[in-house]
Every structure is written in C-alpha cells, then in structure tokens.
Specification:
Chain B: Keywords: Transferase. Chain B: This is 3-oxoacid CoA-transferase subunit A. Chain B: InterPro entries: 3-oxoacid_CoA-transf_A, CoA_trans_fam_I, CoA_transf_BS, NagB/RpiA_transferase-like. Chain B: It comes from Nocardioides jiangsuensis. The complex is a heterodimer of chains A (about 220) and B (about 230). Chain A is of the alpha/beta class. Chain A has one domain: Glutaconate Coenzyme A-transferase, CATH 3.40.1080.10. Chain A contains 4 helices and 14 strands. The longest helix of chain A has 11 residues. The radius of gyration of chain A is 17 Å and the shape is globular. The termini of chain A are close together. The model of chain A has no long low-confidence stretch (mean pLDDT about 95). In chain B, the strands form 3 sheets. Chain B has an 8-stranded parallel β-sheet with strand order 1-14-12-9-2-3-4-5, sandwiched between helices. Chain B has a 3-stranded antiparallel β-sheet with strand order 6-8-7. The chains are: A alpha/beta (about 220), B alpha/beta (about 230). Chains A and B meet through helix 2 and helix 3 of A and helix 4, helix 5 and helix 6 of B.
C-alpha cells in the first residue's frame, strides 16, 4: 500500500488517470457513460487499448467535432464519436455477446454504492417516482471480466458509498473488482477490501470513516 | 418476394391496431424516422413499441407517443434528458413500461428471429429486474429464463438495399436492425438508396433479403432538425 499523504484528494481527471494507468495492455474496454468516459483521455497509445461501445463498435475514437460529426456514428451516451483504423461495427446481439460471453476485459462504471463483496448499485435510486432505466449496465456488470468503478467515496449527504451491503437496488452481484475514488483505490478480493493507494488520507483514517473492514495491500 | 414500395405510406400499410412494432435505432442513429412518421399517419393504435429508448425530442418515436397511439413501451433506457414526451405520459399513467437490460432485450429479439423458445442469461440475476423470472443454476452459476420478443412488424433503417432486400448499414446505425429484421412477421426497411441487382457485394451484405418484406427509399437524417 502507498499512502500519498502529500497529494489528494484527487480530482476527476486524477481518478481517470489512475484507472487508465491500471488497464492492462491490449485490453478490450468499455467505458460507461459520464465520468468513466474521461478515462479515454489518459490511455497511452502504447497500451493498445481497444474501446468498445455497446451500441455496436470496437475501435471507437475520440469525440467528433464540426465536420467530423456523423449522425450514424455515436457512442452509448449518444455523443458523436470517431472511428479509429481497425474499427469494426456489429449489431446489438453481437455487441452484448462480447460482454456476456467473457470477451470484454474491463468495463469502467459509475456507482451509487458498491458493497465489500463486489455487489454494485448504479442504475436506480429506488425513489418511487423515478422512471427506471437500466440500459446496458447490468449486462456490463455481469459480463465484463473486470469491473472497475469510479465514484466519490462519500455521497453528498456524507454517507459512505463503499458499504457492507447496498441499500439501493442492485445492478449485479459480486461483480466489482476495483473501486477508484478521490481518496483511495480499493481492490475487492475474496479475502475482503484491500486498500492499494490512498490520496490525502491514510488507511487508519479511512478505516474510521468506513463501515467495512479494510486491509492494506502488501508492499 | 421483396416489395419495393413507392412511398412510406404504402410501405407501412396494413399495420393493425394492437400490433407489436419493433423499431430499430439507438437514440437517433438508425431510427427509421420516415417509417415511424408513416405509422403515425396511418392512425394504427394501441401499439406495443419495442426500441432501445422511449423517444427523443418531439420527432420520431416521441411523435408517435405524443399522438397517443402507443399503449406500451418495451425498452432498456427510457429516461434521457430529452425524453420529456414519454416521461409525461408515463407519469400520467398513459403508457405502460417494461424495462429490459439492453443485452437481454437484444437477445430476446434475436431469439425470436432464430426460433429459440427461451434462453437462460446471467444478466439481471439478483436484481429487481429478476422478479418473477425462473432462476436455474448451471455449472454453479445462476441464470434467468427469458422469452423471445416477437414483432408483428419491424421498422428498420438501413443504408442501402438491393431488389432482393439484402441490406447494408452505416456505422453505429446498424444497432438493432439486423436482429429486428428477423423477428417480425412483416419487416419494413427504409434506406437511403435502392441499388440495382448486383449492386451490393454479397460478401458485405449484413442482413440477407430473406428477412425483409418491404423496402422504401427515403431521405436520411431528418432528425437533425431538432438535434
């Protein structure tokens, strides 16, 4: 474990940079809508990461601007994007077979809550007047080989989002392997929650503020 | 045989009240705007619409919803920043909603076209969307039983067709088109261009014409008007 007490908490770009750093070379990766999209900005060309967008493309390039905008070329967030050399297009059933069939190496998602056992809640607040909308979140959570979550460690009301048990409706069971927050990177393992790095805080401080047992990663 | 219709009204003729209509498209990409507009003009009512979303802005699927012709929407992601037409109808209790995870939605449609009676999927196990569904443990992992979604009609947008009904698509506009084309009793396709026989390389055909009943050429992307 590395305690960076001289830097942090991280901003959103700082979190995205660390997620990008930790994606293995040559991975097929799906970046969820919203904050996870920022990870693309920090992937190094030598990592040779191929981005998947669930509406039917591998080899997705950066956001399109001006004359490059093509209404037929959008990402899952419905934002115009570009294609890179070596890109491919496919229909929805194939796109989700890539997830469910275990071909997608990593997906990066946002979350309302993550439980210590890897349960994920990120699609529904459970509010009675909310219109439920799930999109591809459950398929990604269940299908990708590794699910990385990017989120703030605490909600606006101060409650922790890394919890013993999710109180929000679940997206997937035991699916999250890592959680990237502004204060720490957590690895969710069979032996419990392991803190890999801290930013502007210490393991001891985190242990006092979270209701889940924490261990420091071995050096 | 495939019919090349002269206009969109002819292309969508005969859609009965109460039909289940599969509509291709993800957001605006691949959405068959002209065919949806023709269904709206046809006055067919009490429709169940299957699409990834529940309409954007005021055109396309949103216009069909606004005209009160849709009884139920089956989709994965109804709530968007410009889905106000659906949102209002839903909150007023004027349209039913079945939310299906996107991959399960796609596979249920594919299964219908492939003659699969049902299938087990790991997606949504342990979530509220698993309620009422059979769970089976296979090789130590839990799966949900899901049934096909069949359409009376499929409305699809492709890029080009030949007189055999063979289709090619453009970029992410492909999305649900190929699987919906196989999953309905009547598949109607709007394209930018109908090319002569031999005008499509057989190696590049994405949807073979056996899945297509009617084709009509239309102008692409009228959606830009309120994008």
């Amino acid at each position: 474990m590395i305690e960076h007490t001289d830097q942090g908490p991280l901003d959103r770009d700082g979190m995205a940079r660390l997620v990008a750093r930790d994606i293995p070379t040559g991975s097929f990766v799906n970046l969820g809508i919203g904050q996870p999209t920022r990870v693309a900005d920090f992937l190094a060309p030598e990592q040779q990461v191929v981005l998947h967008t669930e509406n039917g493309m591998l080899g997705m390039g950066p956001e399109a601007h001006g004359d490059a905008i093509d209404p037929d070329l959008i990402n899952a967030g419905k934002i115009p994007v570009t294609e890179l050399p070596g890109a491919s297009y496919f229909h929805h059933a194939d796109s989700f077979a890539m997830m469910r069939g275990g071909h997608l190496d990593v997906c990066v998602l946002g979350a309302f809550q993550v439980a210590a056992n890897g349960d994920l809640a990120n699609w529904h607040t459970g509010a009675p007047d909310a219109i439920p909308a799930v999109g591809g979140a459950m398929d990604l959570a269940t299908g990708a080989k590794d699910v990385f979550v990017m989120m703030t460690l605490f909600a606006k009301d101060g409650s922790a989002k890394l919890v013993k048990e999710c109180s929000y409706p679940l997206t997937g069971l035991g699916c999250v392997s890592r959680v990237y927050t502004e204060q720490a990177i957590f690895h969710l393992t069979a032996d419990g929650v392991v803190v890999a790095e801290t930013f502007g805080t210490t393991l001891e401080e985190l242990a006092q503020r979270l209701d889940v047992p924490l261990a420091g990663a071995p050096q | 045989m495939v019919e090349i219709a002269t206009d969109t009204d002819e292309a969508v003729r005969g859609i009965a009240d109460g039909s289940t209509v599969l509509i291709g498209g993800f957001g605006r990409a691949g959405l068959p705007f002209a065919l949806i507009e023709a269904v709206r003009r046809s006055g067919a009512r009490d429709l169940t619409v299957v699409n990834n979303n529940a309409g954007n802005g005021t055109t396309g699927l949103a216009a069909l919803l606004a005209s009160g012709q849709v009884r139920k929407v089956i989709c994965s992601f109804p709530r968007q920043k410009d889905s106000f037409v659906f949102d209002e109808l839903y909150r007023a209790g004027k349209v039913e909603l079945e939310v299906v995870p996107q991959g399960n939605l796609a596979e249920r449609i594919r299964a219908a076209g492939a003659g699969i009676g049902a299938f087990y999927t790991p997606t949504a196990v342990g979530t509220p969307l698993a309620e009422g569904k059979e769970v089976r443990t296979i090789d130590g992992r839990d799966y949900l039983l899901e049934y096909p979604i069949r359409g009376d009609v499929a409305l699809v947008r492709a890029h080009a067709a030949d007189p055999m009904g063979n289709l090619v698509y453009r970029k992410t506009g492909r999305n649900f088109g190929p699987i919906m084309a196989g999953a309905a009793k009547l598949t109607v396709v709007e394209v930018t261009e109908v090319v002569p026989l031999g005008g499509l390389d057989p190696e590049t055909v994405v949807t073979p014409g056996i899945f297509v009943d009617r084709v009509v050429a239309t102008t692409p992307h009228p959606q830009e008007e309120d994008a």
